[in-house]
# Entry
Amino acid sequence: MTSTPTHGHTAPLGRTSAAKISFQQVSRVYPVQDGDFTALDRVSLDIGDGEFVTVVGPSGCGKSTLLGLAAGLVQPTGGQVLFEGEPVTGPGPERGVIFQQYALFPWLTVRGNVEFGLKLARLPAAERRSRAQRAIDLVGLGDFADALPKTLSGGMRQRCAIARAYAVDPHVLLMDEPFGALDALTRVELQEELLATWDRERRTVLFVTHDVDEAVYLAGRVVVMASRPGRIHRVVDVDLPYPRTEEVRLSPEFAAVRNEVWHAVHHQPGPAAR
Amino acid sequence: MLLNVVAVAFGVGLWQVLASAGVEGLPGPASVAQRGWQLLANGTLEGDILASLRRVLIGFALGSLLAVPVGFLMGWYPWARGLLEPYVQFFRAVPPLALIPMAIVLLGIGETPKIFVIFLAAFLSSVVAAYQGVVDVDRTLIDAARVLGASDWEIFRRVVVPAASPFILVGMRIGLGSAWGTLVAAELIAAQEGLGFRMQQAELYYDLPTIFVSLIAIGTLGLLMDRLLQRVERRITRWQERR
# Structure
């Protein structure tokens, strides 16, 4: 169930051409008061088309930085990130991002938020409307299309953010602890919905979380990161069938993978020798 | 609301008692109301109010109109902040009234110096608010717009402006308040009509009722304008989460 651990520069660069997202020896260093802080140290990782990959690790392991690099919101200080074979130089609508804090525009209604990216794409009003409606219906916010974000619960806000990302039909979804701020029940609900949509469309997902159960339940592959410096500690393949039902969630096989990932997250080596 | 009415009634009552108890020279509510009626009937009060309102509205409109782009520039571009901030801070430290002698010498004694001083008072309060509003825009909202494909201009138009609008409106309210205060004081120094001028004239003749009428008009108008702008603000920022 475990693939070879990936240690910085010794990692194989692998199938560059086939990968949807390819991190190649990517580093990100932030200058701080006394010297430099290495958020990511020579990370290499390939994510294939249609994969669902989760990234889990302790805080400060650079998992959000990794996602920011793929989104183009963070620039690498070393190495490069390829998206569909091209170096990432900035953000773009083909890479949809879901933020933990929802990041909804509070002055726009649910519909206004979902149409935001479609307006930027200069779609005609009629098509904008129908595509937004489809996305809103997909996440089950049909009755709240004209509501302002302030009137919505956390789960509904995140649904709206997901609809906003779906509406522009991105090639990949980059999700940064999207369910981290939700209560346990809502979280499970949104996990199920996300998986159902993914199962139908097989749109590549890179999903960052600090929740081991969530990481294993959603993913085909779990990337476990370590901190100081941020790096990939282990990559665990999850050989559980989709669709993931309650039965899968409660199965001994699931428990076995979860335990393995749990160990990898909670018993990590000290700071790596540089 | 009921308490407000009670408070006003009590105040007028107290005023009446003080006046009839014979406080030296203090006119009673009745004589002030009578004078107010006189001034209304012969058109003086309307003329003064119009003159004052015209000045304050022109100055305020120009000031806040210029404050928005300048504040945005300062918030968005560090170089603009570096260039403009010393001037904004310096003029904020100078009471607008202190500029009146200079304005009169440079701009003459017509309407221009008064409008200029009011403009400056409104501009300085609004510009700082607009600047603060831009600086405080939530970074993740800008990121969210960028990942949806927004250019810098679209981020400015569709994210920064609406996100900063509550700050700007608060700045405008403060600006309107200080514009009104500055106006009346400016009229005290040099004017041919206006509420401040009327008080100045009345002072020469020990005409306390007229002074009272002007004071009440100044307070009422200031309050009305503030409430009006508050309404507008509430309406525009209805999306805000209020605690």
Observations:
- Chain B touches chain A at residues 138, 140-141, 143-150, 154, 158-159, 162-163, 165, 238-241 (CB under 8 Å).
